[in-house]
Design goal:
The protein is of the alpha/beta class. It folds into 3 domains: 4-136, no CATH class; 157-380, Spore Coat Polysaccharide Biosynthesis Protein SpsA, Chain A; 390-640, Alpha-Beta Complex (Spore Coat Polysaccharide Biosynthesis Protein SpsA, Chain A). 28% of the residues lie in helices and 26% in strands. The chain has 18 helices and 30 strands. Strands 19, 20, 21, 22, 23, 24, 25, 28, 29 and 30 form a 10-stranded mixed beta sheet that branches. α1 packs across α2, α2 (101-112) packs antiparallel against α3 and α9 (315-328) packs across α10 (350-363). The longest helix is centred in the C-terminal third of the chain and has 16 residues, at 619-634. The protein starts with a strand and ends in a 19-residue tail after the last helix. The relative contact order is 0.10.
Length: 659
């Protein structure tokens, strides 16, 4: 797998290395992976950032005892190493002092403690990571246009541009970007919703027509292998069409493809999108400009656009088309090129999107309903009738101050009508805890299972689930406090969907900041919680933290799943992951079995104990590292490409920064 070896001049170790490299745009690219070898059976592996604009840069630390530097490359990306440079400790620390002086102090403190990983990550977080607000500067050194085989070589593409007379200047900008396209043939129809005047000296590839917005795209589309809908003012990069069309090529290939974009307003803002995320696509229409082909295109050509009246806004055409595609396409037929190929004007279509989504759900008889919260449209899924029994499983030991409020919150602070509680007790010796258990046993909904063996979270949880009578099981930590009585209703609605596996909640620390908003596989080198310690109402990139959406994994501190799905994949893996990574591994195995993982912001609970929990040390740290190594070995490819986290976003920090 590690097919590249970097040869450096003899001597430079205990310093920093800078790599600059180019990559071709491909769907689902594996991040380059660097292995720093430090002797027999000792090494560190670090995923590098992907090339969102054609090129990427990585800054990393070379340990003093390093013996070799190896690279694993995705062969599809045509990886080209443009530059290798070395930097001294002094230069990196000086940069850190300028950018984040307190971070420099923290880095030196951890160096003194010989915590090399923390030392390295602090400096990298300050010097190698860029906040999204500084995207323009970050992007300027990374833009590359991919070479093509020459003009006119791609499949025929037809683009429809709905517009109004007031959009004339923006239409001209969009057509100018089309004229600059390389490597493929295209035609376009400008569909004027309120009439147009004759255009002199126009590009012969562009047709102007009056269109009142009622009918279908077949009215506007000649025979073409590929179709897309542009909005006035959207400007494609010169290699956009050839790259997008290339992603659709080949038998059995995708039927739709989309890329990333940047918003031109007071500041240049990136929109770095996940791979296909069906719930997020329905709730927000995040793919934007998309090319369609094959059987999906044939179906979309006859989708009715507008309603009893004409379309009142050009964006309605894009929204209606996107909603129909999201409802019809198979996940395996969707490609995302993680490359910024489009610049779009700043606009807020929230109101129009909510209106069109509600109309779409009614027209297609979807069981979901729309919900407007925090200015964004979300989907509300129906609860089965009657409400299925839910078994809540809580592993615990002593700590009356934790287990009493946790159990009380489940039994008395939850509005859901059908609950049973299984507490798996790991050898509690506190008499007060046993007295509380005696009270709980009077409730017919409660079972206390004794587990006298050494602590094994996975085995204890599996034993609790084995006793469950409920259709849905909820794994819950004993340090969780219920904040809203509707939390379980929200989770069960999601968990009972046939295509959904694990469902995660929004967890808050005791101080009200975010503890869990979904897990990114690869964060911190293994897996981590995104936006940790951010304000509870943080919208997240693309605003996705305000709506339920797909993620790669969620924490077992509060996780709902149908019991049959849990059992189908063998539950938690107690052999490989008795303490850590078991929840992430479960979610990834559920995904491999065809079940998506969903995180919802509408189920809110507090995760109290994590605020004061310190790092593992001694034997506990050794055990953690052993489980981490097993996790990396099993899920290395997912670490290199979490489909719901853009490859240009940093895996060093937890705030969706650029790298």
């Amino acid at each position: 797998m590690f097919s590249w070896r970097l040869r450096l001049p003899a001597g430079p170790r205990g310093c920093w290395i800078v790599l600059t490299y180019r990559e071709h745009a491909v769907a689902r690219p594996l991040r380059p992976l660097i292995r720093l070898v430090r002797g027999p059976r000792r090494h560190a592996e670090v995923p590098l950032p992907g090339a969102a604009l054609g090129a990427a840069t990585w800054l990393g630390y070379l340990p003093p005892d390093g013996t070799d530097i190896l690279l694993a490359i995705d062969p599809r990306t045509g990886f080209v190493l443009e530059r290798v440079g070395l930097r001294t400790h002094g230069s990196v620390l000086a940069e850190c002092l300028v950018k984040r002086p307190l971070r420099a102090v923290a880095a030196l403190y951890n160096a003194a403690r010989r915590d090399e990983r923390r030392f390295r990550d602090i400096l990298r977080g300050a010097c190698a990571v860029t906040p999204r607000g500084r995207y323009r500067t970050w992007a300027s050194s990374r833009r590359r246009i991919e070479a093509t085989s020459g003009p006119g070589t791609g499949p025929p593409i037809h683009l429809v541009l709905p517009a109004r007379r007031a959009d004339g200047a923006r239409v001209a900008e969009t057509l100018h970007s089309l004229a600059a396209q390389i490597g493929t043939g295209w035609t376009a129809t400008v569909a004027w919703l309120d009439g147009h005047e004759a255009v002199s000296g126009a590009d012969p590839r562009v047709t102007h027509t009056d269109w009142r917005g009622r009918g279908t795209l077949r009215d506007l589309t000649p025979d073409a292998a590929i179709l897309g809908v542009l909005m006035p003012g959207e400007c494609l990069r010169a290699d956009a069409l050839v790259l997008l069309a290339g992603a659709l090529a080949g038998p059995g290939g995708p039927h739709m493809v989309y890329a990333d974009e940047e918003i031109a307003g007071a500041h240049l803002v990136p929109r770095l999108k996940p791979d296909w995320s069906p719930d997020l696509a329905l709730a927000q229409g995040y793919p934007g400009f998309t090319l369609y082909t094959g059987a999906l295109l044939a179906r979309l050509l006859d989708v009715p656009l507008g309603d009893s009246e004409a379309l009142v806004d050009p964006v309605d055409c894009r929204i209606d088309l996107g909603l129909s595609a999201a409802a019809a396409v198979e996940a395996r037929r969707v490609a995302h090129l993680p490359r910024v190929l489009l610049r779009v004007p700043e606009a807020d279509h929230t109101g129009r999107y909510a209106e069109r989504l509600e109309r779409h759900l009614r027209a297609f008889g979807s069981p979901a309903r729309t919900r407007i919260e925090s200015g964004l449209t979300d989907l509300l899924w129906p609860l089965p009738e009657p409400a299925p029994l839910v078994t809540v499983v809580i592993p615990s030991r002593d700590r009356l101050d934790l287990i009493r409020p946790a159990a009380d919150g489940v039994l008395n602070g939850t509005a859901y009508p059908a609950i049973e509680l299984v507490i798996v007790d790991n050898g509690s010796i506190d008499p007060a805890v046993h007295a509380h258990y005696a009270q709980l046993r009077r409730d017919p909904r409660v079972t206390i299972l004794d587990w006298p063996a050494p602590f094994d979270f996975s085995a204890m949880t599996n034993a609790g689930v084995a006793l469950a009578r409920g259709r849905v099981v909820v794994l819950l930590n004993n340090d969780v406090a219920i904040l809203r009585e509707d939390w379980l209703d929200v989770m069960v609605r999601q968990a009972c969907r046939p295509e959904v596996g694990a469902v995660g909640a929004k967890l808050l620390y005791g101080d009200g900041t975010l503890q869990h908003a979904g897990v990114v596989v690869g964060l911190g080198g293994r897996a981590g919680h995104i936006l940790r310690r951010r304000p509870a109402d943080s919208p997240g990139h693309l605003g996705q933290m305000r709506v339920a959406h797909e993620v790669s994994a969620v924490t077992a501190a509060c996780l709902a799943v149908e019991k049959r799905k849990f059992d189908a994949v063998g539950g938690l893996d107690a052999d490989a992951f008795p303490i850590d990574f078991n929840d992430v591994d479960l979610c990834l195995r559920l995904d491999a079995a065809g079940y998506r993982t969903v995180w919802t912001p509408h189920a809110v609970v507090a995760h109290l104990e994590s605020t004061s929990r310190g790092p593992s040390v001694g034997p506990a740290r050794a055990r953690f590292e052993a489980e981490a190594d097993r996790f990396v070995a099993r899920w290395r490819d997912t670490i290199r490409h979490d489909p719901y986290y853009h490859p240009a976003l940093s895996l060093t920090t937890f705030g969706e920064d650029l790298e």
